[in-house]
User: Which sequence fits this backbone?
């Protein structure tokens, strides 16, 4: 292909295919269509599957925490389009303790979801983590955690939910994201970064589970603070 000749052909093909597949949709005229480069999608999927995702599995391998709903080596529903200015593919995964599955009315005192986004220009790793505490937990400690200046750039959120027996539960939600351009980091460096973020979240999980054994423990609460700061500080 010389010069700019042929540019846009992949988008035209994507649009034609989308319109054909959705021709019976009565709301088609009201929808927004995101177009990508099919070849780049294949390349990005290969980067995720062969370069980045193995880092997650390697970090999880020694312990009991696993990725929920795995199918053919990837979490269901697998790699999908991420609507972006550039062609972009993403993978979302949720961690689970097989001994305490995420079921209504049961489960561990934590929830952890990761998201991996990859484009021809860069990549991004993000995590969401929720800590569940009983309503009897010290509100002073919760406020101390929420007010930590190292979370100032992206402060955690506090909410109250009802448990399986309609008891009240404090929920502290954390989120963060980081990444880099491919001109700054190689695939190998990106994989190491992803592995580090998984490790940090595993350490938070361990700290939450230790605190669950004795919610009045100052030592265990401090350990949770330290683990959360390592994983989610945003100052």
Assistant:
């Amino acid at each position: 292909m010389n010069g700019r000749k042929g540019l846009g052909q992949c988008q035209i093909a994507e649009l034609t295919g989308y319109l054909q597949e959705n021709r019976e949709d009565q709301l088609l005229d009201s929808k927004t269509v995101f177009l990508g480069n099919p070849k780049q999608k294949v390349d990005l999927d290969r980067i995720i599957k062969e370069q980045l995702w193995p880092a997650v599995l390697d970090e999880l391998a020694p312990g009991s925490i696993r990725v929920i709903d795995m199918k053919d080596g990837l979490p269901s529903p697998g790699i999908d389009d991420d609507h972006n200015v550039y062609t972009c593919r993403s993978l979302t995964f949720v961690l689970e303790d097989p001994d305490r599955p995420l079921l209504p009315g049961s489960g561990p005192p934590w929830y952890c979801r990761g998201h991996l986004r990859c484009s021809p220009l860069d990549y991004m790793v993000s995590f969401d983590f929720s800590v569940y505490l009983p309503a009897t937990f010290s509100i002073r400690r919760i406020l101390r955690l929420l007010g930590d200046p190292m979370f100032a750039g992206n402060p955690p959120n506090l909410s109250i939910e009802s448990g399986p027996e309609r008891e009240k539960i404090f929920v502290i939600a954390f989120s963060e994201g980081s990444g880099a351009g491919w001109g700054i980091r190689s695939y190998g460096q990106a994989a190491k970064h992803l592995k580090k973020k998984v490790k940090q979240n595993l350490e938070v999980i361990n700290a939450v589970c230790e605190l669950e054994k004795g919610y009045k423990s100052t030592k265990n609460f401090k350990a949770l603070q330290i683990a959360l700061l390592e994983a989610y500080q945003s100052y």
The mean pLDDT is 92. Residues 30-129+174-232 form one domain. The longest helix spans residues 187-212.
